[in-house]
UniProtKB/TrEMBL annotation:
The chain crosses the membrane at residues 233-256, 268-286, 292-312, 339-357, 363-384, 415-433. GO terms for molecular function: protoheme IX farnesyltransferase activity. Keywords: Heme biosynthesis, Membrane, Mitochondrion, Transferase, Transit peptide, Transmembrane, Transmembrane helix. It is a multi-pass membrane protein. This is Protoheme IX farnesyltransferase, mitochondrial. Converts protoheme IX and farnesyl diphosphate to heme O. NCBIfam families: cyoE_ctaB (TIGR01473). PANTHER family: PROTOHEME IX FARNESYLTRANSFERASE, MITOCHONDRIAL. Its EC number is 2.5.1.-. One of its GO terms (biological process) is heme A biosynthetic process.
Amino acid sequence: MPLVIQPLLIRSLNQKLPSILTLGGEYGLIQCRRFAFKANARSTQSDQNQVHINTAPIEFTANLLAGRKEVETDGLKGAALKALRCNDTTPDTESQQSQEHLPFEVKLVDKKQRQCTKELRPKVELRPEAALRKRYIDPYLQLSKPRLTVLVMLSAICSYALSPYPATVLQLLSLTVGTTLCSASANAINMGREPNFDRQMIRTQARPVVRGIVTPTQAFKFATVAGTFGTSILWLGVNPTVAFLGASNIALYAWLYTSLKRKHIINTWVGALVGAIPPLMGWAASSSLSHPGAWCLAGLLYAWQFPHFNTLSHNIRNEYKNAGYVMTAWKNPKLNARVALRYSLLMFPLCFGLSYFNITDWYYQLDSAFVNAWMSLWAFKFYLQQKRNYSKEIYNNKTEFNKGLAIANVYARKTFWISVLHLPAVLILAILHKKGRWDWLFEDEKTMQA
């Protein structure tokens, strides 16, 4: 069983009391408090003013630090550091000698017995297909950011389905495969460029390049192959305009956006442009980009990313800051919440434009208004709370500020998860309300009347 250590350092209880390091978990903590109470009772009034009990948790000291001169000390603290060292390099004689000064027993593990246990442990051998998948398929699949890639692909397909001109199976398949490969290429380059920064964030430290499963060079080679095949499929299977948009999106995301992430908050607006291009690709597969409906769909994807990402980054703003990413969430928290609300409200006129330009029927305004209001309501609550938190009377009061920040965290989290549901809901409703979608239900009635 692992040994749980909770050190408590009591300093300056009185002039005669030396520093004490008490180990042993909760029981030791109680004993130290009792001891400190008795010592205080015996102290004079002047001595009581000098009493200081440090109850802050002390993190485990690394083995490398244990051997340094600044931590080498005699007495109880030095004995504890030597006896509880987590390695097999300490001689047995030294460990036994260090235990003589400890007020508790430390049971050492026999090194030979540990080695025998490791050798007797059954080795699990994966089947060839499972080993192949674990070594090659899964790492490169993770390089493509599959969830983000699927979202990009679906946004292109939904735009293709909403275009007024007829679709073909060959174009649909080419658009799907080409867009997926282009997105995978951009994401792989992004991961290959940022392993040193990604390892500093919890949400990105499990990426294959960070873990060393795939090297940056291998990520770039994968991106080159995926990008080449993706743009070629779009060129041959769809048209040159879509292929150009796909290649532009790779450059925009992998180079411009990735570079700006560590320089200026404008990177969020550039990243939103990356999300607006796939709907244009889907529309351009069968229709002209001069149609205003294409830009309404592109604007919808562009605006959606701000309430989605700004609320996501709010709750991990310190991770972005520590990793060196310049994000609005920590550079300007009030602007971060205001932008999330602003683009949430922009959803209403964009959805109205789809009906106005005859992409959807007018019943779409009822359904989409309900979904847009749902997200805008929580974005508004998030904005009001952040505006209150950073007002002069609250910001200078740390207690009230922390309470308000906890409420803002809850509002941001709810807005984020609502945005996850919002986008597919708006796109699916648009497809269901496409102009002329349900005319076949009334064809018989019109024929009978004629």
